[in-house]
TrEMBL record:
Name listed for the protein in its UniProt record: Fatty acid hydroxylase domain-containing protein
Stretches that traverse the bilayer: 21-40, 46-66, 87-107, 119-140, 181-207
Subcellular location as annotated: Membrane
Organism listed in the record: Mycolicibacterium vanbaalenii (strain DSM 7251 / JCM 13017 / BCRC 16820 / KCTC 9966 / NRRL B-24157 / PYR-1) (Mycobacterium vanbaalenii)
Keyword Membrane appears in the UniProt entry: yes
Highest classification ranks of the organism: Bacteria, Bacillati, Actinomycetota, Actinomycetes, Mycobacteriales
Length: 322
């Protein structure tokens, strides 16, 4: 139950206003812009890691200044696990970026990439192409049993905060990133553009899962940020099979999987997976669980909660997302 907070001081109110309206621009434009400048200059990649560290720290700070749900800021014996997810998955992303020159050397059509374009335009092009590939695999992961086994790790969360975005089974992340980046590599994606793209993905995931009640106005219908992505984490299959985009919601509008209700509020009782309320919580068990018999789909049916809002046309509601 929410309690009434004491009246905030003028300085606190001003800080909250800055966070509410300035957080997203500072991340999407400020830190991504810094990453693009670093990548364009060919600077050492550890500068990108430093920018990511600033993004994570900023996210944690803003989540405490303007929390959507203050309870989601409290560790539930999942903080260490989530940090392991971040370390493992970011290491894999950096390793894949480092492998691009080798891959480019064996790609016959590598000169198709628009090298003459301004660097910012190249990065934005890479983001749009990757967004399509990742969105398609994300949608498939809610339809195809073998993919859902691994994607379910991400949907086991019952509190919604920044690090959730990087809480993924590494095999599923590899499939998603391959779908997003492989077409780019085939046409000669430069490693510096890939580095800026990797940072943009990480920042986007932090924003998309943020426990911050920030404001982005009408952009919430186009950008895949937390207001829309909370609907994706509703625990009922069908109801939660919406808003699959990573960077944008354009493909969701086209696929009729977009869902949004400005009046809806979320809490932990609505998140997770109705089919698997006891999904393993520890990191190692989450790595192993998809390979077990119990890690597959449930078979019994379930119903949606009364009053649930959906504007898309999802599959019939059941515990079986396969």
């Amino acid at each position: 139950m929410r309690t009434t907070s004491p009246a905030a001081s003028p300085s606190t109110t001003a800080l909250q206003a800055v966070a509410r309206y300035g957080y997203v621009p500072s991340m999407l434009i400020g830190l991504n812009g810094a990453g693009i400048a670093v990548a364009a200059a060919g600077a050492p990649k550890y500068w990108l890691v430093a920018i990511l560290a600033v993004a994570i720290a900023t996210g944690f700070l803003v989540e405490r200044i303007i929390p959507y749900d203050p309870e989601w800021n409290h560790d539930r014996a999942d903080g260490t696990r989530d940090r392991i997810h971040v370390a493992v998955n970011e290491t894999l992303i950096l390793a894949s970026v480092a492998a691009i020159p080798l891959l480019a050397a064996i790609v016959p059509a590598h000169q198709l990439w628009p090298h003459s374009w301004p660097f910012v335009a190249q990065v934005l092009t890479a983001i749009l192409v990757a967004d399509f590939g990742i969105t398609v695999v994300h949608l498939a992961s809610h339809k195809v049993g073998v993919l859902w086994r691994f994607h379910a790790v991400h949907h086991s969360v019952t509190r919604f905060y920044g690090l959730n975005g990087l809480m993924k089974h590494p095999l599923h992340q590899t499939v998603e990133m391959t779908a997003g980046v492989a077409p780019l590599i085939l046409v000669g994606l430069p490693v510096d553009v890939a580095s800026a793209l990797a940072l943009a993905v990480a920042i986007q995931l932090l924003l998309q899962h943020s426990n911050a009640e920030y404001r982005i106005g009408p952009a919430k219908y186009v950008l895949a940020l937390n207001e829309g992505h909370r609907f994706h984490h509703l625990k009922w299959a069908g109801i939660g099979d919406v808003n699959f985009g990573l960077f944008t919601l354009v493909w969701d509008h086209l696929m009729r999987t977009f869902s949004y209700d400005p009046a809806r509020r979320f809490d932990s009782t609505q998140l997770g997976m109705a089919a698997k309320p006891d999904y393993p919580n520890g990191y190692l068990r989450q790595m192993i669980y998809p390979f077990t018999r119990r890690g597959g789909c449930a078979s019994e049916a379930t119903t949606t909660p009364n009053g649930a809002t959906q504007t898309s046309t999802p599959d019939p509601v059941s515990k079986n997302r396969c």
